[in-house]
Write a structure and sequence with these properties.
The complex is a heterodimer of chains A (314) and B (322).
Chain A: H1 12-23, H2 29-56, H3 62-67, H4 76-88, H5 93-125, H6 131-143, H7 150-159, H8 167-174, H9 177-190, H10 193-201, H11 206-214, H12 219-234, H13 238-243, H14 252-262, H15 278-304, H16 307-311
Chain B: H1 16-23, H2 30-57, H3 74-80, H4 83-115, H5 120-130, H6 138-147, H7 156-159, H8 167-170, H9 176-201, H10 205-213, H11 218-229, H12 231-246, H13 250-260, H14 273-284, H15 287-312
Helix pairs in contact in B: 2-15, 3-15, 4-9, 4-12, 5-9, 6-13, 10-11, 12-15, 14-15
Classes of the chains: A mainly alpha (314), B mainly alpha (322).
Chain lengths: 314, 322
């Protein structure tokens, strides 16, 4: 948005020097620079260390976990053993959980996009019936934490006998008011109205307009919506925990909870011979985190700039 | 509810006169059809659950099947006078008192610090802060159980001076509000830091340049110029943190489950109001009382939502409005 508004400078070097003076300057002072560095580094340790530990943990035995340096590496073969042990839990049900998680997340994502994008587009570019009330209700529901509605949703799903089916998780999560709002803002601000007008004069109907003009111009929006919806669905716990009762329809988060509760990993006083210990649980945790972490790495730019910024700026 | 939503800038949204004439139209337009699926979802999963909970809160479940409107206010009395009700709200209140200021001040301070300089260090740190957002739900609780275990934690050096040798020394009822605060910050702060950083990037360069020329140092420009310009983000952060944290469920639930199994009941199964509601529904079988608590939680969430929309006027997309 603001990028590229630098006053024109004759050479690249001059521009760099100017930018350096203006953006960093020397205004922090040496002490300030040092303080800032250490404060941010400390935060980096707080946020980064647990993740590094989690990735290394599955390579170590329980003894190594307690006695070795926390950030030491065990062995790759231990990783394979952990995986075998995880598979031995209820006949490899963790595979089913992973498949369920992927299916629920994809189904929700597709449904949410198909429902939200045209709605946001129409609310921004034309005047559907009840526009004001739809927008008002969208604002209210998007600011209302989903967990507030979980029990009422359960009761509703119970009424239509969808409890314990994937739909009881997919349908409520595909309701994505924040997505509609972001799409609404994006199309209202970023879509050149002249372009739409020109296409209309050329005889394009509304569906063609959306398909050939609206959609191709909404890549940053799509990136942000995919990111927000996928992470929310992949990590969803409260709703599936309440809706799904059979182990075979669990997603990974609910399954992980079953692993924590049903194995001696975190409470060695329990006497069972299920071979799930800390390392195995950590591996299950890594399995859950990895897909989202990859999505995160690639989508930070969508959060830092663009569509989201526009939505809460005055 | 009279929420000011103005038409988008330069939009083709019609004036009042046009609207009136359009109301008489009979056939749905393309725009109506575009919006229809979303409206159905909005009704089914946004509005209807609330209405259904309202109905159930007045219904009796005494003999297993619901008898609609048979209970009067009894469910509310049952829920709100339950001996666990007060404790659950005290717990969540203690959690809010710590977590909301910690979250808002922490995120804002880190975003401003990051923005004081550009370069690879800033970029790398911002990414590191952002990544834990990928860890959520049970995984973050699992991670917390590891981090709080003095036997395996990479932070074990911090526990020794506090004379904590076992995980049960760390996870005590009195420590829970702080523990959940750190958990929430670990997971959520990075995303908000990125959003606030995005807001800071949006500040007009000329403004910051003028401040430098006027001799402001980085601290002065952060406090006097940048902070006021992103205050809307900060209010938004504040209210969403409040509204989200009030609904806490996952963390106490999973920590409770993992500990009760070992015979140590450090975490009550009805630690938070949402857990109490869950217990009413699935342990006690009183869906009416569960609905009553749910409604209270929805009301708190709605109050937060309405507050943010009305008091701040964020969600206008038209600069000329109001």
């Amino acid at each position: 948005m603001i990028r590229g508004t630098l006053s024109p400078s004759p050479t690249l070097w001059a521009r760099r020097g100017y930018r350096r003076l203006m953006s960093t300057g020397n205004s922090l002072g040496p002490v300030g620079t040092l303080l800032r560095f250490f404060a941010l580094l400390l935060c980096g340790i707080f946020f980064g260390l647990p993740l590094i530990w989690l990735i290394l943990a599955p390579t170590k035995t329980d003894v190594q976990l307690t006695q070795n340096f926390p950030l030491s590496f065990g062995s790759l073969s231990k990783l394979g053993e952990d995986w075998q042990h995880l598979l031995s839990f209820d006949n490899g049900v963790i595979i089913q959980w992973s498949i369920n998680s992927v299916l629920y997340a994809l189904a929700t994502l597709i449904l949410a996009l198909v429902v939200s994008l045209p709605a946001g587009y129409a609310l921004a570019t034309s005047n559907p019936r009840g526009r004001r009330i739809i927008l008002s209700l969208t604002l209210v529901t998007m600011l209302l934490p989903i967990s507030a509605l979980v029990l009422p949703l359960f009761l509703e799903m119970n009424l239509v006998q969808l409890v314990n089916t994937p739909w009881s998780v997919i349908l409520p999560t595909a309701f994505f008011p924040f997505g509609v709002y972001l799409a609404f803002i994006y199309y209202a601000v970023s879509l050149p109205k002249d372009l739409l007008a020109a296409a209309r004069i050329d005889g394009a109907n509304e569906l063609q307009l959306f398909w050939h003009v609206g959609l191709p111009l909404s890549r940053p929006l799509l990136g942000l919506l995919v990111f927000l919806n996928f992470t929310a669905t992949w990590n969803n716990y409260f709703l599936p925990f309440v809706m799904l009762q059979d182990e075979s329809v669990y997603n990974l988060p609910v399954g992980l909870q079953a692993l924590i509760a049903g194995t001696p990993a975190l409470h060695p006083t329990t006497s069972t011979n299920i071979p799930i210990h800390r390392a195995e649980l950590a591996l299950a945790g890594v399995l859950m985190v990895l897909p989202v972490a990859i999505v995160f790495l690639f989508s930070q730019r969508f959060v830092t700039s663009g569509a989201l910024t526009g939505s809460i700026k005055d | 509810m009279n929420i000011p939503i103005s038409s988008p800038a330069n939009s083709s949204a019609p004036s009042k006169g046009e609207t009136r004439s359009r109301r008489r139209r009979f056939f749905p337009t393309a725009a109506d059809i575009f919006v229809l699926p979303y409206v159905l979802f909005l009704l089914a999963f946004g509005i209807l659950p609330g209405i259904y909970a309202l109905v159930l809160s007045f219904s009796s479940f005494a003999n297993g099947t619901p008898q609609y409107f048979a209970a009067g206010l009894q469910n509310f009395v049952t829920a709100f006078t339950d001996f666990r009700f007060g404790t659950a709200f005290v717990n969540v209140f203690q959690f809010l008192i710590i977590s909301v200021p910690f979250g808002v001040i922490g995120v804002t301070a880190i975003a401003l610090l990051l923005h004081a300089r550009t370069g690879w260090f800033t970029h790398v740190m911002r990414t590191i802060y952002f990544l834990p957002g990928a860890v959520a739900g049970p995984t973050v609780v699992l991670l917390a159980l590891f981090m709080c275990d003095p036997q395996v934690s990479p932070f074990r050096g911090l526990f020794a001076p506090l004379h904590m040798q076992q995980i049960v020394d760390v996870i005590q009822p009195g420590h829970l509000p702080l523990l959940f605060t750190l958990l929430g910050f670990f997971v959520g702060a990075g995303g908000w830091i990125a959003i606030l950083y995005g807001g800071l990037q949006g500040i007009q360069r000329e403004l910051l340049e003028a401040a430098i020329i006027d001799g402001a140092n980085a601290w002065q420009s952060a406090i006097s110029i940048k902070l006021p310009l992103i205050r809307r983000y900060v209010i938004y952060l504040f209210i969403l943190t409040f509204a989200g944290n009030v609904q806490i469920f996952t963390e106490p639930q999973i920590i409770g489950v993992s500990f009760s199994y070992a015979g140590i009941s450090t975490v009550s199964p009805t630690w938070s109001p949402n857990q109490l509601s869950y217990a009413f529904a699935f342990t006690i079988g009183n869906f009416g009382a569960a609905a009553a608590i749910s409604l209270l939680m929805v009301a708190i969430g709605l109050a937060g939502a309405t507050l943010i929309i009305r008091a701040t006027g964020f969600f206008r997309t038209d600069a000329t409005a109001g």
